[in-house]
Amino acid sequence: MYLPLVYDLAVDLGTSNTLINLSGKGVIVREPTVIARKKKSKELLAVGMEAKKMLGKNPEAIEVVQPIKGGVIADFDATAVMLKHYFEQISQHIGWLPRLLRPRVVAGIPGGLTEVEKRAVQDAALSAGARRALLVEGPLAAALGAGIEVIRPDGHLVVDIGGGTTEIAVISLSGIVVNRSLRVAGQTMDQAIVKAVRLSRGLLLGEATAEEVKINIGSAAALEKEKIFVVRGRDIGKGLPRSLKLKSAEIREVLAPIIQEITAAVADILEETPPELVGDILQHGIILCGAAGLMPGIDQVIAEATKMPVGITEAPQDAVVRGLAKLLANARLLEMVRLKRGLS
Fold this sequence. Notes:
It contains 12 helices and 18 strands.
């Protein structure tokens, strides 16, 4: 049986989740961007979902770390250790010879990062065992993942609402014409839910519980049938455990200002876009990517605010890693779109 001598990995290193695609195998890592380690020795104890389950439940001797904040590496060592764990895990899927040669990695990053922040992502991948690490701007990768032919002189507007950032970009001729990166996204919504429940209901929730609320009953527009979700937290007044029923309508009200901020940014980008490209966008519609693209009604709200059609790409949470995988299969296009300034 033929085995490739080298192997390539596409890495979407997100604030909330990390996805890794192994060429020829598809997405084989889909885990929360969380690690648990001993506080003093820094010994790794758990990664991904296993570590996320420890959030808010860990003793003083163990720290649970979310190494990416707002799309930027906040803890370099934790990021490198996490990637190394996944790279070693992936090596079990391949033969011994390519394992010795180490992988080539292409990673997606948010727009607007400084040179130092970009270099940190590259260095983390190299420290984790990559033989080479290339960087591509996330919106461009998301566009490829959505099936857009980015090399054409044709304008497309991509809105990628992730965990830590919302990326809004107009793409044409293999490049980004206008873009904006907001530190307002899925985790901002979780924090807003925690704050609202604390202030209005006197119940203290963890962010993991707030995320469950958002996923289960969060919406941007009115639902045909409103939903209810039961949460458990600590009563602020009594200090005792308490259960509470939350309704989708009240959560929608909590999320509305955040969604309005995102839609306003989309409208601002359209105002900055050259007229010829606006005509293309009107024809093709706005493409919605990212996990928050699964929230009911968010496409409707953006469409009403911009007066443009909005389409949600298939499996929007996978758009970036899917686009990166396409680049690994097209060396010429990868060389055209990868970031080069100040990077090896």
